[in-house]
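Supplementary Methods S3. Complex input for the 1-deoxynojirimycin-bound model.
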Amino acid sequence: MKLYFLSTAVVTTTFIYQSYALPFDQAEEEFSYTRKLLSEIDVQEAVKQASPLINILSWDESYAKAKMLVDQMSLEQKVNITTGIGWQTGPCVGNNGRTTSPDFPELCLQDSPLGMRFADGVSSGVAGINAAASFDRAAIRKRGEYMGEEFRAKGAHIQLGPSMNMLRAPEAGRNWEAFGEDPFLVGVASAETITGIQSQGVMAVAKHLIGNEQETNRLVHSANIDERTIQEVYLWPFARSVEAGVASVMCAYNKINGVYACESDYAINKLLKGQLGFKGFVQSDWSATHSTVDSANNGLDMTMPGDISFYSGDSYFGKNLTDAVQAGRVQEDRVTDMVMRIVASWYKLGQDQNFPNTNFHSFRPELDKHIDVQSDHKNLIREMGAASTILLKNLENILPLRTSGIKKMAIIGSDATTNQLGLECEDHGCASGSIASGWGSGTSRYPYLVSPLDGIRARAGNIIDITEHLRDDDLPVAAELASKANIAIVCVNANSGEEYITIKAVADANENTIVVIHSVGPILMPWSNHPNIKAIVLPGLPGQESGNSLADILFGDVNPSGRLPYTIAKRKEDYPAKIDHGMSFEYSEGINIGYRWFDKNGIEPLYEFGYGLSYTSFEYRDININLNQGTANDNVDVQASVTIANTGMVDGAEVPQAYITFPEIADEPPKLLRGFEKIFLGKGSEQVVNFSFRKTELSYYSVESHQWVVPQGEFKVHIGSSSRNIRSSATFTLS
Ligand code: NOJ
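Predicted complex, serialized as structure tokens:
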């Protein structure tokens, strides 16, 4: 019996960053500047300023203000603002140049999508993939709000997230940073996150535009994606981000159809700024700029971290850009446009007023003010950890655990515990013990990590006698322990290759085995049907409150309501895409990503997209369709409603999902997610849930007309509790 972990994080840059020393002269100069910056700060003031009432301006208002400032700038000043000051030469992972007379500050750009990287006193919450698994718009927005609050209090102007690349190949190293395999879900999660972050006056960054769906060869490969697939899958989340008012977009490392993303006229000018009408600024991924003239003319607005390669001391922008303007190869208007976009974004987020000084230092702890900005965010993190935990299997209602019935519990596996080394290493790169986050630039430092063992112990108190074997070897010992317990809990994670042996040894010895999986993404589970494995719980990457969130679910204090944001296949070969080791690869599955592929090819998954069990049951009553405007044009407006009743014995949350089947002419996959809601229902109660389908939801991209088109003909709406558990369907026709 084998367990294959599909997801292996391959994020390498962090360690490259760490291994260089800063050139002496640059270091000294910057050191004194930074020291001055930090000594100016009144710590209390910074925290006080952290909970502002932000008045977010419209783009028109922001541009009007920006014009007055930028009009006073020389070419060199403008160029300075577009150019990062160099890797590790400021307090943040990225800082751009500032100007005086007129004054524009050095902006602080800081990772990551789940919390602040390279800082202490910050929270380390659920990963993007868990935010998506919550299927809870309000919770995702609150997550954005608390992250924005922490970034602001630390004086970071720009949070480098959310990450919104698609989970195309299950092995891809950074899938966990983003929101899964479905564009609609990724779009909603991205927009809510951005709205949340920006409500605190911090700029969000939609990343990475586009085609960064794997880490292998990411600096050089070309993602070859056809026009329709770009529009319907990969650009979709960026479209929703622009609608949400995102301030910045990060172009990717890779090439798109043969052209580097950061100098792609097609991706930046035509699609993002043209078609989507993006008014903010495009920043490069770190060292993803490859030219001066092509990048500038094709839409790049800011190069990060500024130097051509780390510590090189030169830049494709900076003097090279000034020279290119003077030589007539880049128009000064283009440089003015770059700066207008940056300065307007700063005004839009109200950063010209009371923005706290940067008070942390990513690279020099001795210059860090060590301000604790966590507030009570751990409560939301615990809630979200539980709300994003997916219950995959629950035979004989073994869960929730009833403390009175259990005398002895065995907890097995290294993932049940934590060790100091795993907690302290930078970017979680040497994580050992339980994992609650992936590793790389998408992380933030744990303030602490509640292990599964600690969480379960705290909840079980003295009532249950807990024995433990916190290793993945010595299987006879594990089996012996399991055989003497009423319940055996095996904790496994995606960073190890040995747990399948542990799972089998324990399951053979204990007929009430519960498997808990901390994983960065889909895994293969050929053991899932073992009759002694009564329950499978997938908390994914729940962040610092891991063990507490897990205990909340296991003991029924919270009724599970997480849903799979990806498909778990029976076999690796069933997935449509895998990591490509070449330099150029085709996205040959096209628009049939994720569950769409399984639907179209009649492949039975092990657990389908949108799936997750509850401790209660829900009944769906018939759909009502209301065609407010039933013509196939831009004003189309179709409403659907369904009544959902909690018919079980406990309160709980349900996630009704609306899938649409398009008329044949659209040539879409069998069904597409086009709506979801999370509703909380007390036992015995019911609620009407409404879905609204407008042009965005009811159009497909026509490669003939190069436009989004609402087709005429018969549509079907399916409302269900997963992509395969459709409870009620109805048709409507657009004429
Ligand atoms: C590279 C990563 O791809 C990007 O997501 C991150 O924001 C930058 N490095 C800065 O650390």
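The chain has 22 helices and 27 strands. Residues 1-44 have pLDDT under 50 and may be disordered.
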